[in-house]
Automatic annotation (TrEMBL):
One of its GO terms (molecular function) is hydroquinone:oxygen oxidoreductase activity. Its main location: secreted. This is Laccase. One of its GO terms (cellular component) is apoplast. Binds 4 Cu cations per monomer. Lignin degradation and detoxification of lignin-derived products. It catalyses: 4 hydroquinone + O2 = 4 benzosemiquinone + 2 H2O. Residues 52-164, 176-325, 425-557 form the Plastocyanin-like domain. It is found in: Secreted, Extracellular space, Apoplast. PROSITE patterns: MULTICOPPER_OXIDASE1, MULTICOPPER_OXIDASE2. The chain crosses the membrane at residues 21-39.
Amino acid sequence: MVSSKFKQDKRLETKGAVLSMVCWVRTLLFISVLVPAFVECRIRHYHFNVVVKNATKLCSTKPIVTVNGKFPGPRLYAREGDNVLVRLTNHVQYNVTVHWHGVRQLRTGWSDGPAYITQCPIQPGQNFLYNFTLTGQRGTLLWHAHISWLRTTVHGAIVILPKKGVPYPFPKPYKEKVIVLGEWWKADTEAVVKQATQTGLPPNISDAHTINGHPGPVPNCSSDDAYTLHVETGKTYLLRVINAAVNDELFFKIANHNLTVMEVDACYTKPFETDTLFLGPGQTTTALLKADQGIGKYLIAISPFMDTTVAVNNLTGIGYLRYNHTLAFTPTTFVAIPAVNATPVTSVFSDSLRSLNSKQYPANVPLTIDHSLFFTIGVGINPCATCFNGSRAVAAINNVSFVMPTTAILQAHYYGINGVFTDDFPAKPAIPFNYTGTPPSGVQTMNGTKVYRLAYNSTVQLVIQGNTIIAPESHPTHLHGSNFFVVGRGVGNFDPEKDPLQFNLVDPVERNTVSVPTAGWTAIRFRADNPGVWFFHCHLEVHTTWGLKMAFLVENGKGPNESIEPPPSDLPKC
């Protein structure tokens, strides 16, 4: 009877999920008290060993930090409602944490992962058990390191299947494929960021883009290390596309094939057809692909988006879609990629996204607002006597450049430790200015470890306004601990009188990461119903490094079900 239980979730087992011994014991205990043997075991147990492994890309070999020796790392499969346990053991010289990007972590902020925000890092030779439940979520997410630039190679997919017996709200695909997009540096990225920090200059850009770890053909390297997606004529495939890149927003195209978007950031959408996906770092898009073209080989291309005067790796990552029975040496069908500054393509894609807003999956947009916040974000220059040219690149929200503490903020909040942070993060800029016009002179950011305090279950409207103090730029911004609804976006300065009249409060897309357009704004709404400390930051690692980050502190509500759980006994120490 026990063995038949394991067969019930064979789909998960064959994709790498390991049922823990705790789960086995609980099953036996259930049986011993005459609970039927078909009771579903809902604990998924993974072991993440952080190790160094040599990897060869672009005709060059270097050691990289990995989980279980894989790049990208192992895929984490589970179902909605499952309890996930991940034992992470650090075998490398660096401190490590892992963030489960997009997992809400209801009352389990200790397992969220950002270093010095919710936990102290896992030091070399130490381990920690991440323990969280996938409540009310299903779809595609990702996990990645959340300290320094280790997420360059320490990342992987999270696939949350619906509860058993619950169908997708779209036609069942023939097969599912996970496609992880990334960046690759020939150099050691920890050395890259260290050099940039010392000189005050922007870090070197990456050397290639990768598809499931493969860059494809690149100049000055004869190796065609390319990913191939094998398909069968007439079948429909579900592609789970993840942008795990560090600094680049990316376009994704397959020659002669359209894609039907069904979900973003583990939130179902109204389906729409497109030939181009647009994903910022940390974003996911799940789409149906119909293999409806002639037998042959078709180019898959990922290329960067940058519509301003900022250096970007403009090399296209190449892969192939190959139909079964395609003959050897069949010519490849090529695809036209968007221009690097194809702003209209990004706008059409973003504006097409709408929540499914069905009876089963409603869009619960907050209609009344307790906190109306206005955050202006961007980069700047501060004096630095020891830097290369006497100045340092910085980034800030409301002119505050975030300083990482040496004790985790969540621990300081929980235990009442003074001197770690202050709760006076400004709700709006201290001095308003023409954010997308000529920048004011003599602007210098202030430093601080500041949070914005929210009462439990309060509602928030946040307008994120890009500025042009140095150069306007698209900013993919990520909120930990909550999804949000993207109720509006626009170019130029936000108009508090006119722009809210155009907000979509019926079926706005629900996400955890959203791009703020270059020299423009994005408005989001969310409910602060998850007690804890939740990071909010630009998901371009270069900007996070420079200080474009802050945190929301959500207070406990009434009783244990509205309060953060006590910290685990093995929580790492600083």
